[in-house]
Amino acid sequence: MRHLSYLALLAACLLGTAPLELWLGVRVYRRWRLLLLSLLPGGLVGIGWDSYAVYAGQWHFDYRYLLGIRLARLPLEEWLFFLVIPTCAVLTLEAVRRCRPDWMIGDEPADGDETADGDEPAEADRPLAAKRWRLR
After folding, report:
1. How far is Cα 44 from Cα 124, in angstroms, rounded to an integer?
2. Most exposed residue of 30, 58, 91, 94, measured as fewest CB within 10 angstroms of its CB?
3. pLDDT digits (tens, 9 = 90+) for 12-66
């Protein structure tokens, strides 16, 4: 079972943030193209950096905690890391935006502009759970 440790950690991260998508309705998975575009730069840098570090002997992975499947010298779990962890971060950020609309994050559209996914922001569009669980 030890070989599933890294994979189990990634699954726990996804399960821990799943309620943000399901109950708060942050719509991250619905906007999957935008999510992939946001994951791409960090994923490319991270995979490149890890690949170089492994190749140069500066970094290694303990295969006792991994499945043993490698892609371009990196374990499958490391590739998944660059998808799962940033996705969980985006889910968390969007949940904060949903629950605290008064907090400025920095990518808010100007008054009258459309949002990045083409939807007009509207209070009526917010899920009931997001309205009820606002922290003040």
Report:
1. 38
2. 58
3. 999 999 988 888 888 898 999 999 999 999 999 999 999 999 999 999 999 899 9
Strand residues in 4-116 grouped as ranges (E): 70-71, 74-75
Residue among 46, 24, 52 nearest 130 (CA):
24
User: Which residues have CB under 8 Å from 9's CB, separation 6+?
Assistant: none
Looking from the CA of 28 toward its CB, the CA atoms found within 13 Å total 28
N- to C-terminal Cα separation, the chain? 43
Q: What is the pTM of this model?
A: 0.73
Q: Which two tokens stand for residue 53?
A: 């570090």
Q: Which residue has the tokens 């459309």?
A: 114
How many domains, the chain? 1
